[in-house]
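--- STAGE predict ---
source: upstream dedup step, 1 unique chain passed
mode: sequence only
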Amino acid sequence: MPDAEQAGERRTARDARGLPEAPEEAQDAQESEAARRRRRAQFLRELHEAKQLRDRVQPRRARAARMRQQMRMRTFRW
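--- STAGE serialize ---
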């Protein structure tokens, strides 16, 4: 029964991914958190760059978006 064996392997792998208990596992978790932050910052930089490029390539759409944002801000109640 290979399915039962695979299920057991998956369960063992899932149990192994539990909360970090040892100090080296905690350090790995911190490193992965730092890596996640670096990847997120890189993604946000690329997203911002892509939006700027789109605004340069499609000036009419960018102007319409700016106008919509201005109207939103004008009608917003503080």
